[in-house]
Design brief:
Residues 1-23 are annotated as: Disordered. The protein is mostly helical. It has one domain (32-248). It contains ten helices and no strands. The relative contact order is 0.16.
């Protein structure tokens, strides 16, 4: 992590710079969706490849099952992410409507809630009453304050469509990388699997590195952590395939 210089920090905290930043509309951040989709896509695909190879099946089977799982699981994950974000938005809207109804029916009770919330933050006397009067004078501000302070929810709604698209695109793009060697003619199954493993490892490390860059964390440590997570899932799939092959006496193709 490289801390900003004092000069840069001072420049960013000038009154006009702060005003411009606060008036700027919030950007939709889909980085978490990209990371989630990428990791799950690579784990899913390479787990299929490892299971197929561990069971001794033909590389063509790995290719077919890999792409089938890639599209189906990617779509399922995108829909799940969409539904999750949409449900969260509906939940927040229901709380907003409830608070609006309470303000209409028992305004003094809602004012008392504001008073006690900020009293617990250390405000008292005339200052506390000014805060209560200021917030309760603006119904939108009043409701937003209750959402954050009483219910502990974020008032910024995410776009479920953008999140779903980012998840699906990342899932399919990164998840397809381990399948590339199986589309190259002339390679032995063992070499195909070895190259696929290297590509999957590279993807896992790259995702971890990308995540670390977003939050100014150590790149190598984050990359290795993600690599170990994905590698463990692939190893389990390989072992399951191998054990089942031995148990049922499946002949390698």
């Amino acid at each position: 992590m490289h801390p900003d210089s004092d000069e840069k920090l001072s420049e960013e905290h000038r009154p006009e710079a702060i005003r411009e930043k606060l008036n700027r509309p919030a950007k939709e951040n889909v980085a978490a969706d990209v990371v989630l989709g990428g990791i799950d896509g690579c784990v899913t695909t390479f787990a299929v490849v490892s299971g197929v190879v561990g069971a001794g099946f033909s590389p063509v089977v790995a290719l077919v099952l890999g792409f089938a799982n890639l599209i189906a699981d990617g779509f399922s994950m995108a829909v799940s992410n969409y539904e999750s974000i949409q449900t969260q938005g509906e939940f927040i809207q229901s709380i907003r409507e409830t608070e609006q109804e309470h303000i209409r029916r028992v305004p003094e009770g809602e004012r008392e809630e504001i008073r006690q919330i900020f009293q617990n933050k250390g405000f008292s006397g005339e200052t506390l009453e000014k805060i209560v009067d200021t917030i309760s004078a603006d119904q939108q501000l009043w409701i937003d304050t209750m959402l954050i302070e009483e219910h502990g929810v974020q008032i910024t709604n995410r776009n479920p469509v953008k999140a779903a698209i980012a998840t699906f695109a990342s899932f399919v793009f990164i998840g397809s990388v381990p399948l590339i060697p199986f589309m190259v003619p002339g390679l032995t199954p063992l070499l195909q699997f070895a190259i696929s493993a290297c590509l999957a490892g590279l993807m896992f490390f790259s995702i971890g590195a990308f995540k670390s860059r977003l939050f100014d964390k150590p790149v190598f440590r984050s990359g290795i952590s993600t690599l170990l997570t994905g590698g463990t899932a692939a190893m389990l799939a390989f072992l399951v395939g191998y054990v089942l092959r031995e148990i049922f006496g499946i002949a390698a193709l």
